[in-house]
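Notes from hallway chat w/ T.B., transcribed later so I don't forget. T.B. wanted the structure written out for a chain they're using in a teaching module, and asked if we could keep both sequence and C-alpha coordinates in one place. Agreed to drop them here.
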Amino acid sequence: MIATRRRFFGLAAGLLLAGAGWSSRAESPEGASATRLMDDLMWNRGPIGGPFALIDHTGILRTDEDFRGKLLLIYFGYSYCPDVCPTDLQQIGLAVDGLGARADAVQPLFITLDPERDTAAHLADYVPSFHPRLIGLTGSAEQIRRIALAYKVYYAKYPPDSSDYVIDHSAFIYLVDKTGKYIGFFPPGTTADRMIEIITLNLSDTKR
Protein backbone atom coordinates (compact mmCIF):
# COMPACT_ATOMS: atom_id res chain seq x y z
CA MET A 1 0.00 0.00 0.00
CA ILE A 2 2.82 2.44 0.77
CA ALA A 3 4.30 1.99 -2.69
CA THR A 4 0.93 2.59 -4.31
CA ARG A 5 0.33 5.78 -2.34
CA ARG A 6 3.91 6.94 -2.93
CA ARG A 7 3.42 6.73 -6.67
CA PHE A 8 0.01 8.39 -6.49
CA PHE A 9 0.83 11.50 -4.51
CA GLY A 10 4.28 11.84 -6.02
CA LEU A 11 3.00 11.58 -9.59
CA ALA A 12 0.16 13.97 -8.88
CA ALA A 13 2.66 16.42 -7.42
CA GLY A 14 4.91 16.25 -10.45
CA LEU A 15 2.07 16.76 -12.86
CA LEU A 16 0.77 19.72 -10.91
CA LEU A 17 4.15 21.40 -10.70
CA ALA A 18 4.89 20.80 -14.36
CA GLY A 19 1.90 22.95 -15.23
CA ALA A 20 2.59 25.65 -12.68
CA GLY A 21 4.83 27.83 -14.84
CA TRP A 22 7.80 27.29 -12.53
CA SER A 23 10.89 29.23 -13.57
CA SER A 24 13.97 27.47 -14.95
CA ARG A 25 15.82 30.60 -16.08
CA ALA A 26 19.12 29.45 -14.57
CA GLU A 27 21.09 26.26 -14.18
CA SER A 28 21.52 24.65 -10.79
CA PRO A 29 25.03 24.48 -9.28
CA GLU A 30 25.38 21.00 -10.76
CA GLY A 31 24.42 22.18 -14.23
CA ALA A 32 21.20 20.20 -14.00
CA SER A 33 18.15 21.93 -15.38
CA ALA A 34 14.94 22.31 -13.41
CA THR A 35 13.18 20.15 -15.98
CA ARG A 36 15.62 17.27 -15.65
CA LEU A 37 15.62 17.26 -11.85
CA MET A 38 11.84 17.46 -11.75
CA ASP A 39 11.59 14.62 -14.24
CA ASP A 40 13.99 12.46 -12.22
CA LEU A 41 11.99 13.08 -9.07
CA MET A 42 8.61 12.56 -10.69
CA TRP A 43 9.60 9.21 -12.19
CA ASN A 44 11.70 8.15 -9.22
CA ARG A 45 14.89 7.84 -11.27
CA GLY A 46 17.83 6.91 -9.09
CA PRO A 47 17.97 7.03 -5.30
CA ILE A 48 16.24 9.94 -3.61
CA GLY A 49 17.38 11.19 -0.22
CA GLY A 50 20.44 10.34 1.79
CA PRO A 51 22.57 11.13 4.81
CA PHE A 52 23.37 14.63 6.00
CA ALA A 53 25.25 16.41 8.78
CA LEU A 54 24.06 20.00 9.21
CA ILE A 55 23.84 22.63 11.93
CA ASP A 56 20.43 23.30 13.40
CA HIS A 57 19.03 26.70 14.36
CA THR A 58 20.32 26.30 17.91
CA GLY A 59 23.89 25.68 16.70
CA ILE A 60 23.87 21.92 17.30
CA LEU A 61 25.19 19.43 14.74
CA ARG A 62 22.35 17.22 13.50
CA THR A 63 22.55 14.15 11.27
CA ASP A 64 19.84 12.16 9.57
CA GLU A 65 20.39 9.39 12.12
CA ASP A 66 19.22 11.71 14.90
CA PHE A 67 15.71 11.44 13.49
CA ARG A 68 15.38 7.68 13.16
CA GLY A 69 12.08 6.50 14.56
CA LYS A 70 10.20 9.56 13.29
CA LEU A 71 8.44 10.30 10.04
CA LEU A 72 10.13 13.32 8.47
CA LEU A 73 8.61 16.22 6.57
CA ILE A 74 11.55 17.87 4.80
CA TYR A 75 11.26 21.23 3.09
CA PHE A 76 14.01 23.02 1.13
CA GLY A 77 13.77 26.78 0.85
CA TYR A 78 15.20 29.99 2.26
CA SER A 79 14.14 32.58 4.78
CA TYR A 80 14.12 35.49 2.32
CA CYS A 81 11.65 33.66 0.07
CA PRO A 82 8.80 36.13 -0.42
CA ASP A 83 5.79 33.85 -0.79
CA VAL A 84 6.02 30.12 -1.57
CA CYS A 85 8.21 29.11 1.38
CA PRO A 86 6.17 30.91 4.06
CA THR A 87 2.95 29.51 2.65
CA ASP A 88 4.20 25.92 2.57
CA LEU A 89 5.86 26.16 5.98
CA GLN A 90 2.63 27.49 7.45
CA GLN A 91 0.75 24.49 6.08
CA ILE A 92 3.39 22.13 7.48
CA GLY A 93 2.93 23.74 10.89
CA LEU A 94 -0.85 23.41 10.65
CA ALA A 95 -0.47 19.75 9.64
CA VAL A 96 1.68 19.03 12.68
CA ASP A 97 -0.88 20.70 14.93
CA GLY A 98 -3.73 18.86 13.20
CA LEU A 99 -2.14 15.47 13.89
CA GLY A 100 -2.69 15.93 17.60
CA ALA A 101 -0.94 13.28 19.70
CA ARG A 102 0.27 11.56 16.53
CA ALA A 103 2.53 14.55 15.85
CA ASP A 104 5.04 13.13 18.33
CA ALA A 105 5.94 10.58 15.63
CA VAL A 106 6.59 13.32 13.03
CA GLN A 107 9.50 15.75 12.73
CA PRO A 108 9.37 18.73 10.32
CA LEU A 109 12.71 19.96 8.95
CA PHE A 110 13.53 23.14 7.03
CA ILE A 111 16.80 22.92 5.06
CA THR A 112 17.99 26.25 3.73
CA LEU A 113 19.17 26.67 0.15
CA ASP A 114 20.76 30.00 1.08
CA PRO A 115 23.46 29.19 3.67
CA GLU A 116 25.20 32.49 2.96
CA ARG A 117 22.40 34.44 4.63
CA ASP A 118 20.58 31.72 6.57
CA THR A 119 22.99 31.24 9.43
CA ALA A 120 21.96 29.29 12.52
CA ALA A 121 21.34 32.55 14.36
CA HIS A 122 19.16 33.89 11.56
CA LEU A 123 17.15 30.66 11.36
CA ALA A 124 16.65 30.80 15.13
CA ASP A 125 14.53 33.91 14.54
CA TYR A 126 12.79 32.48 11.48
CA VAL A 127 11.66 28.89 12.05
CA PRO A 128 9.72 29.39 15.32
CA SER A 129 7.32 31.63 13.39
CA PHE A 130 5.89 28.54 11.72
CA HIS A 131 5.96 25.92 14.46
CA PRO A 132 7.87 25.41 17.73
CA ARG A 133 8.88 21.90 16.63
CA LEU A 134 10.19 22.95 13.22
CA ILE A 135 13.97 22.49 13.03
CA GLY A 136 15.98 24.74 10.72
CA LEU A 137 19.17 23.31 9.21
CA THR A 138 22.08 25.05 7.54
CA GLY A 139 25.69 24.30 6.62
CA SER A 140 28.39 25.09 4.12
CA ALA A 141 27.52 25.71 0.48
CA GLU A 142 28.98 22.29 -0.37
CA GLN A 143 26.98 20.50 2.31
CA ILE A 144 23.77 22.10 1.08
CA ARG A 145 24.66 21.27 -2.52
CA ARG A 146 25.09 17.59 -1.66
CA ILE A 147 21.85 17.15 0.25
CA ALA A 148 19.88 19.18 -2.31
CA LEU A 149 21.22 17.01 -5.12
CA ALA A 150 20.37 13.86 -3.16
CA TYR A 151 16.73 14.99 -3.01
CA LYS A 152 16.67 16.19 -6.64
CA VAL A 153 16.18 19.78 -5.54
CA TYR A 154 16.69 22.45 -8.17
CA TYR A 155 18.00 25.79 -6.92
CA ALA A 156 19.97 28.69 -8.35
CA LYS A 157 20.93 32.18 -7.20
CA TYR A 158 19.58 34.94 -9.44
CA PRO A 159 21.24 37.22 -10.39
CA PRO A 160 24.26 35.04 -9.63
CA ASP A 161 26.74 37.88 -9.04
CA SER A 162 24.55 40.23 -7.05
CA SER A 163 24.35 40.73 -3.29
CA ASP A 164 20.64 41.43 -3.73
CA TYR A 165 19.49 38.06 -5.01
CA VAL A 166 16.67 35.57 -4.88
CA ILE A 167 16.89 31.79 -5.02
CA ASP A 168 14.97 30.06 -7.79
CA HIS A 169 14.09 26.67 -6.34
CA SER A 170 11.73 23.74 -6.47
CA ALA A 171 9.35 23.60 -3.53
CA PHE A 172 8.44 20.01 -2.79
CA ILE A 173 7.70 18.71 0.69
CA TYR A 174 9.43 15.35 1.11
CA LEU A 175 8.09 12.53 3.25
CA VAL A 176 10.69 10.16 4.72
CA ASP A 177 9.90 7.09 6.82
CA LYS A 178 11.15 6.16 10.27
CA THR A 179 14.13 4.26 8.87
CA GLY A 180 15.26 7.21 6.72
CA LYS A 181 13.81 5.85 3.49
CA TYR A 182 12.19 8.25 1.03
CA ILE A 183 8.43 7.70 0.64
CA GLY A 184 7.28 10.45 -1.70
CA PHE A 185 6.59 14.18 -1.99
CA PHE A 186 3.86 16.78 -1.84
CA PRO A 187 3.71 19.66 -4.34
CA PRO A 188 3.88 23.31 -3.33
CA GLY A 189 0.52 24.52 -2.18
CA THR A 190 -0.50 21.21 -0.60
CA THR A 191 -2.97 21.85 2.19
CA ALA A 192 -2.44 20.78 5.77
CA ASP A 193 -5.48 18.49 5.53
CA ARG A 194 -3.96 16.61 2.59
CA MET A 195 -0.67 16.22 4.43
CA ILE A 196 -2.46 14.93 7.51
CA GLU A 197 -4.29 12.36 5.37
CA ILE A 198 -1.11 10.94 3.84
CA ILE A 199 0.94 11.13 7.04
CA THR A 200 -1.77 9.31 8.97
CA LEU A 201 -1.86 6.50 6.40
CA ASN A 202 1.91 6.06 6.63
CA LEU A 203 1.90 6.17 10.43
CA SER A 204 -0.75 3.44 10.39
CA ASP A 205 1.32 1.29 8.03
CA THR A 206 4.37 1.45 10.29
CA LYS A 207 2.36 -0.03 13.16
CA ARG A 208 1.41 -3.17 11.23
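Follow-up for T.B.: Residues 2-18 form the longest helix (17 residues). Might be a good example for the class.
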